[in-house]
Design brief:
This is Aminoglycoside phosphotransferase family protein. Residues 14-215 form the Aminoglycoside phosphotransferase domain. The structure is a single chain. The longest helix is centred in the C-terminal third of the chain and has 24 residues, at 218-241. Strand 2 (21-26) and strand 3 (29-35) form a beta hairpin. Helix 5 (113-122) packs parallel to helix 10, helix 7 packs across helix 10 (218-241) and helix 8 (189-199) packs across helix 10. This protein has helices at residues 2-5, 40-46, 84-94, 97-105, 113-122, 124-127, 133-146, 189-199, 205-212, 218-241, 245-261, and strands spanning 10-13, 21-26, 29-35, 53-58, 64-69, 73-75, 156-158, 167-170, 175-177, 184-186. The chain is an alpha+beta fold. The protein has eleven helices and ten strands. It has two domains: 2-70, Phosphorylase Kinase, domain 1, CATH 3.30.200; 75-261, Aminoglycoside 3'-phosphotransferase, Chain: A, domain 2 (Alpha-Beta Complex). It is globular.
Length: 265
């Protein structure tokens, strides 16, 4: 990365799952760099959903480097996820025709419940290594039994990992949702389920969803439960395949909590 910016820049890895993100700084200037970020980033920047895109450069080997503002700020804590600003930003994302048009032009097609289930079952041997197996098998059976009931024909841009550590509050009080590598065109219940099950007490769901901009119905809650369980299984698989067994265990406990709450046996 130094040869792109010049010798007066200091570049350090920024961590993350891909290992392709970096912090760069020189006197009076700071940037967040990423290799082969999606062209989707430009639209997210224009919409004010991620920090401003400063420049994009294509290298001779075909790699594309993007540079964004490196902002002073912090991630939200779990309690702050209840704030109306979080609901408002997620609603803005889900209702953006610009984001949806761009992601569709990049080749994304709407994700269906049957495709979600197919992906999980293709790697079921990974889930079979996770204890307790009973919870995993019950979860898969539930998804199979209800897959036709949660088909929905309204699709939006979903972030697919609305964890609190992906919400950035800048030092000048601007809220962003970052890390869009896994964005999909899908049922909004995919994002809403993870958000509400993880951070919002159930007695506050109706209020939070009204802040988001909808009057929820029974079918939405059914879809949220289905996607919450499927996402929990997907995260268990992902951590298990990376050898992150403690994280897989944490996700397994979250899965059990959802299943116990809704008496899924």
């Amino acid at each position: 990365m130094e040869h792109i910016l010049g010798n007066d820049w200091t570049v350090t890895p920024a961590g993350g799952s891909t290992g392709e993100a970096y912090y760069a700084q020189t006197e009076g200037k700071r940037l967040f760099l990423k290799r082969n970020s999606s062209p989707f980033l430009a639209v997210l920047s224009a919409e004010g959903i991620v920090p401003k895109l400063v420049w994009t450069k294509r290298l001779e080997n075909g790699d594309v480097i993007t540079a964004q503002e490196w902002l002073e700020g912090r991630e939200l804590n779990p309690e702050e996820m209840k704030h109306p600003r979080v609901a408002a930003l997620l609603s803005k994302i889900h209702h953006s025709t610009e984001l949806l048009d761009m992601l569709m032009r990049l080749g994304k097609t709407p994700l269906t419940p049957h495709e979600v289930l197919k992906d999980l079952k293709e790697n079921q041997q990974v889930l079979d290594e996770v204890a307790p197996k009973l919870n995993i098998h019950q979860a898969i059976q539930f998804l199979e039994y209800r897959v036709d009931d949660v088909i929905h024909d309204f699709h939006v841009v979903c972030h697919c990992d609305t964890n609190h550590n992906n919400w950035l509050l800048s030092s000048y009080d601007q809220l962003y949702l970052i890390d869009w590598d896994n964005a999909m065109v899908a049922d909004p219940a995919l994002d809403l389920g993870m958000m509400l099950f993880s951070y919002i007490p159930e007695e506050n769901w109706h209020h939070w969803l009204k802040e988001y901009g909808i009057d929820p119905d029974t079918h939405l809650f059914e879809r949220m439960i289905w996607y919450s369980i499927s996402q929990a299984l997907a995260f268990i698989q992902w951590h298990q395949m990376r050898g992150e067994y403690d994280e897989a265990s944490i996700r397994t406990k979250k899965l059990k909590k959802i299943m116990d709450k809704h008496k899924i046996i």
